[in-house]
Amino acid sequence: MIPKGKLIAIGGNVDKGTDPEGAISFSSLNFFEFGILQRILSECRGKNSKIEVVTTASMIPAEVGEGYLEAFGRLGCTNVNLMHVRNRQDTQNPDYLKRMEQCDGVMFTGGNQLRLSTIWGGTGLFSILRERYMKDNFMIAGTSAGAMAMSNTMIYEGDSADALLKGKVKITTGLALINNVIIDTHFDKRGRFGRLAQAVASNPGCIGLGLGEDTGVLINSGNFMETIGSGMVLVFDGHHIQHNTIADLPEGFPISIEHMVVHVMAKGYGYDVTNRKFLAQTEVF
Q1: Which positions ≥6 away from 224 have C-beta within 8 Å?
Q2: For 63, which of 44, 69, 146, 197 is 20 to 30 Å away at the CA?
Q3: Which residue in 163, 152, 162, 244 sits closest to 207, CA to CA?
Q4: Is residue 76 part of a domain?
């Protein structure tokens, strides 16, 4: 079934709370509040959009949530609520269930993507979100951890410095809002080329998507991607890999990969996941 809704996956540099690499920080939203954030609203109902901000991934949810309320407010959108879902019991909150049925879109904040998959996975609240994404003109946006959790195959740990050593990149199942894709974020600033390369080498049936900061992709029909924002998106295609040592090496040894194809996309360019096709600006949607 082709989803009627849309995804916006954002590369980060907004708010992280505590991320898997141990950093604790909170930065302003002005990097995208008049760019990508505006695009989120335009894909819903503009200033009249009813948005739910989900702070599950963050360890500083109150601060993060207030930042989003302020940012959306600057764009004239004031019908914004916060879902402080901190555990699986919170997903049964009748108020949250009702609000999920009535909103136009959801924004997942940054933090730790493993919190999203373990708290939201298999719950009634997530079932409503997924059904609305499949059947309605519904927007699901996520930044940093919120973007990484969208895919069926999810990176949840991996130090950039050791990323090309076998076993240093940890992978699990995400929320599976998009299939056959692995998403990594903060891609250029944190040097995550090797991290995504190992993830794709381990799962060559998936397309790797490396999102730079202040950058994202708008995904239509669960397949067609358009780059938005000011930075770059890298696409890793492992379908044509020839030589790949990852299966036979002991843990901790450096891997070798032959013929992994990498595309670089700036704003307006796109990618067709099913056909593994780079799309020029004139071909996007």
Answers
A1: 270, 271, 272, 273, 279, 284, 285
A2: 44
A3: 152
A4: yes
Order the strands of the 207-211 sheet from edge to edge: 181-184, 207-211, 233-237, 261-265
| Domain contains 161 | yes
Q: Give domain status of residue 196, yes or no.
A: yes
| Beta strands per DSSP E along 215-259 | 215-220, 224-229, 233-237
Quote the longest CA-to-CA distance of the chain: 55
Contact 238, 36 (CB under 8 A): no
The predicted structure's pLDDT at residue 31: 46
pTM (predicted TM-score): 0.92
Looking at the DSSP bridge assignments, the partners of residue 154 are 172
| Both tokens assigned to 228 | 């938005």
Q: How confident is the model at residue 19 (pLDDT cuts 50, 70, 90)?
A: very low
Token duo for residue 190? 């944190």
Query: Do 81 and 99 touch, CB atoms closer than 8 A?
Result: yes
> Are the C-beta atoms of residues 192 and 210 closer than 8 Å to each other?
yes
Asked, for residue 250, whether it belongs to a domain, the answer is yes
Structure tokens, 130: 């997924």
For residues 132-143, average pLDDT: 97
Question: Does residue 25 surpass a pLDDT of 90?
Answer: no
Closest CA to 228 of 239, 249, 212, 244: 212
Structure tokens of 68?
A: 């989003």
Write the CB contacts of 34 (distance below 8 Å, at least 6 apart in sequence): 74, 75
Q: Where are the alpha helices (DSSP H) in 21-60?
A: 36-43
Q: Which domain, by its residues, includes 28? A: 6-275
Residue 250's CATH number: 3.40.50.880
The total number of structural domains that make up the chain: 1
Strand partners, 108: 54, 142
- Main-chain dihedrals φ then ψ at residue 195, nearest 5 degrees: -65, -50
Cα–Cα distance measured from residue 192 to residue 178, given in angstroms and rounded to the nearest whole number:
21
